[in-house]
Amino acid sequence: MPTTNVIVDVIQNYSDMLQQLDQSIQRIGREWIELDENIYQYMSLKGMIYGDRGQGGSNYNSRDLLDLLSAVKKKETEYEAELKESLLDLIKQRDDIRRIHLCYMVLPYIEHEVLRLLYEENLTWGRVSEKLDISISTLSRKRDKALNMIHTAYSSDLSTTEVLQLQKVRKGIDWKYLLKK
Question: What are phi and psi of 124, to 5 degrees?
Answer without folding.
Answer: -70, 160
